[in-house]
What does this fold into?
Amino acid sequence: MAEARSAEISSHVGAGSSASFTRQVTMVIREFVDENNRKALEWLHQDYDSLEKQLRRRGLDIEWLTGRAMAFRVAVPSWGVGTGGTRFARFAGPGEPRNVFEKLDDCDLINKMVRVTPGISLHIPWDEPEDPAALKAYAAARGLFFDSMNSNTFQDQPGQKLSYKFGSLSHTDAAVRAQAVEHNVHCVELGVKLGARSHTVWIGDGGNFPGQVHFRRALERYLESLRAIYAALPDTFRLFIEHKLHEPAFYSTVLNDWGTSYYCTRELGAKAFSLVDLGHHAPNVNIEMIVARLIQLGKLAGFHFNDSKYGDDDLDAGSIKPFQLFLVFNELVDAELEKAPGFDPAYMLDQSHNVTDPIESLMTSALELVRAYVQAHLVDRAALAEAQERNDAILALQKLKQAFTADVAPILAMARHRAGGAIDPVAAYRASGYRRRKAEERPADAQRGAGIV
Ligand code: RM4
Ligand code: MN
Ligand code: MN
It folds into this structure.
C-alpha cells in the first residue's frame, strides 16, 4: 500500500526517480539488509545472550534497554545529506541529491538502515518546495515526516531585496528586520502545511570589531523581531532559538550564550525554548550542566547534535568527545526517568560532512546517539544519588563510568534488527551499491551547493 502510494506520488511530482525505480530501490535495500542480517544474526544472538546475563547480575533487564533503544528518535538535517564544505572549499561527492525529493530519498535509506530517523529538519529556502502538499505526501509515503523548520537569514538569496551583510533580525534598518521576520513567518506557515512541529531560528548577526554593534540595542531589536515571529506561531508550534558564541561574526554575536537565550525565551512566552547545538559554546564549557540548567528552568528545546574539537566543527556525533555526549545524555535520561515537568526535547543532528559519505556519517551519528542514550539508562541512579549524598566522589564517578564503559552494541544491533533495520548499517549500505547507482542517476553539477556553502 505504502509502495503503491509512493509510486503514485513520485510519478505525480515527477521527482526524478520513476515509480518502478523507487520500488526497485526499496526492494534492493530490503534484500541487502536481510542478507547482511542473516550473516550476522547468529553471533548477535550469542553476544546478546551473554550481555543479558551480565546485565541481569547488575539488576538490569536487557529487554527494557532494547525497548528504549527502539523508542529513541533523532531527526536528520536535510542539509546533511549533501557534502558540506569549509569557507575555503567544498569537495563534492558522487551522487549528491539535487533537490529536496532526492534528499528525502537519502533520508529514507538512512531510516531504513537505522530505524530511528523518520524525522527530517528542513532548511528554507535551501529546501523550499514548489508544492508543499506533494512534498509532505512524498515523505509520508516513505514513513518520514518533518520535524523542525529552519530559517536562513545568514545568506542573501538571488533576487532578495535587502542584504543581510550587517545582520537580519537585529539589523539597524527596520526594513531589513521586517524582511527577515517575514521570511521566518513564511517558514512557520510552510511548516504548518508540511506537518512540522517547531521552527528553529539561528541568526548570523553580530560584529567583527569592538564598537561595531551596540550590544544592548542589538539584543533589543532581535527580541522585538522574535516577538513578531512568535505572534505568528500556531498554538501547536514551538519556537526554538539557537545561540552561538562566534561565527560568522568573530568578535560578538547577538545571541551568544545560553543565558541570553534563556532570557529571550522567557520574554517571549511558553512556546519559546532554547536549543543547544553542541558546537556553539566556548571551548571547555560544561555543556551537560547547561543542559541540566535548561531542563530545570523548563526551557530546553532540544539539540543540534554534532561533535567538535575546536569550534562549530560540525563533525559526526560521538566522534571526538564521546564521554561528553554520554554526560549530556545522562542529564537527559535522568530528566526523562524522573518525568521532569515539561521535558520534551527535540533531538536533531546538525553536521557538515566534508570528507565522508554523508549517508554513512548520518547513520553512524544516529547510532552514536542511541548508544549514549542506552548507556545513560545503565547508570545506577539510586547508587549515584547515595554517593552524592555521602560526598563520595570516587564512587559517584565510578557509577557513571560503569555505564559509559559498558559495550551496549548488541542491544543497539538487536533493536535495529527487530525494527527491520540493518545489524551493520554501513556494511549493508556499502554492499547495496546505493551510492554507485545514485552517482549514475544524479550526474555532478558544478554549480550546485549542498547546504552550508
Ligand atoms: C549554524 C547553525 C544552524 C545551521 C547552520 C547551517 O552554525 O548551527 O543550526 O542551520 O549552521
Ligand atoms: Mn545548529
Ligand atoms: Mn552550527
